[in-house]
Amino acid sequence: MPALIPDFQPISPLAPPALAPAACLPLVTRALEEVIAWRNGEACTVAGFLKDVRHLAGQLPERPFVINLWTDRYRFLVGFAAALIRGQTSLLTSDRSPHRLAEIAADHEGAYVLDEAEEAAASVLPTLCWPAPGSTPAAMASCAVPMIPAWHPAAIVFTSGSTGRPVGNAKPFAALWQCSRAAAKRFGFDGPLTASLVGTVPGQHMYGFETTILLPLHANCATFAGTAFFPRDVSLALSTVPAPRYLVTTPFQMDKFLAVKEGLAPLAGVISATAPLPAGLAEAAERAWQAPVLEIFGATEVGSIASRRTLDGDVWQAYPGVELQDLGDERVLVEVPYLPSGVELSDRTELLGGGCFRLIGRRTDIVKRAGRRASLAGLSAILRQIEGVRDGLFVAPPELETNPATRLLAFVVAAATDLPAIERELRRRVEPAFLPRQLTLVSALPRNELGKIPRDQLLRLVQSNPAAEA
Amino acid sequence: MTSLESGNAMPATDPALERQLARLIVDTLHLEIEPESISPLDPLFRDGLGLDSIDALEIALAVSQSFGMHLKSDDEQNHQIFANLRSLAAHIAQHRTK
């Protein structure tokens, strides 16, 4: 099996070029006859894609923001591209609850929704469904590849809502374009064969967006349009697409797919992100599927910034153009091409030079679960704001990082009779991924004279809690 | 066992299967509740038990092992199937092989 980590020198053709304020980049850099997606067993070519994009673009309302909820990845991609050529910005949220959509619309005046059905969850907002085939308006009927202003905010992707409202991260088209080019080289999607990507993560999540939606625009790969979540979905999906096949997934799902021993069509590679992949799991996957298991490291704020083959060791290689700056105390600032400002990584990081780094552990306040990130302090603050709560605390059990099925623990000081109402309110305010299985009622939290809870006291609290054993 | 007279091909409810499934969910997810406390029509996700997509995958695997069937997400009715204990039990009753 070849080692897929490239040499440590930045690859010069991939260095991000300087772009003038009015610069434009092509929407797609693929040949017209190449396949961009596989949908219901049929190939969608770049030429057909551009036709669909123009047709849809002609139907979009004159509004600045679009919440693209289409789960079919081909349609999602067409919706994203059509919005681009109309100068609109796609708002990407994996939380599609009516409550959350209303919040996004309140923050982005004039937002409308692309959804499967007009009467869907978003019915309070103007909603457009996939249009029936029809003639494309003359103004849109050109066959040239559309050029997109490089600095146009192509998408706003939201981070998790643990600290109140999710924060939007604007992505200029150039940043997405550069990331796709870097990933194409890194994962070998620049050869003569069109790779097939079967994704198990939603296109509305940053990782799924960059891999299963954006890569096919600029790399020689085609995305599987359908949903692949359960093991049987994945095996069926892989059986309908041609080799070389890549599974784009998460450690948790990989573990489950291996557990059911579902036979998969031969894989050329597995790509994993959203949580650290244990070496044992990577080894089991490589053995079972006879394909290299590659990991992407990133965050919603910065996108994908580095990769590694898990079994080659714990060193990450940054994508070309990504700058890492040592802030001291194991803190690292990341600067990504075409993003306006640097972002501090939430993990403790050791810089090794040459664009390489090692992750040493998470900062104690930040937890990741199901591809989302939250601050324990933020979650605790939400809990304490609930009526009837005298004191409250969210705690990450020690095994959270090694076992994805582990849940956060939460302790609350309140009247026992208020507990059901508090739990209901917490479910309303916190994403399911961060909800504890149950609130543990305690008479008091072991706070010291400064109001802080010493670490040894915290561990004692966790150990005395039966829910921690689960 | 009662049948819902809806005119559609609505499967009969199966309280025994619903109880078995409640036990399976509680055991699989290590829930700190009694299986009997899950009402057949309580939503399983978000507002009900507060389960998430990770739990959905866990449940799917347990269901495939216990009942010899596979859950698929391209099923148009997937949201309905996972809505509550009764709908999931009805789906299993139709498709189980053991």
TrEMBL record, chain A:
InterPro entries: AMP-bd_C_sf, AMP-dep_synth/lig_dom, ANL_N_sf, ATP-dep_AMP-bd_enzyme. PANTHER family: LONG-CHAIN-FATTY-ACID--COA LIGASE. Keywords: Ligase. Pfam families: AMP-binding (PF00501). It comes from Arboricoccus pini. This is Acyl-coenzyme A synthetase/AMP-(Fatty) acid ligase. It comes from the Bacteria. Residues 81-309 form the AMP-dependent synthetase/ligase domain. The keyword Ligase applies. GO terms for molecular function: ligase activity.
From TrEMBL, chain B:
It comes from the Bacteria. It holds the Pfam family PP-binding. Transmembrane segments: none annotated. Residues 15-96 form the Carrier domain. SUPFAM superfamilies: ACP-like. InterPro entries: ACP-like_sf (IPR036736), PP-bd_ACP (IPR009081). This is Acyl carrier protein. It comes from Arboricoccus pini.
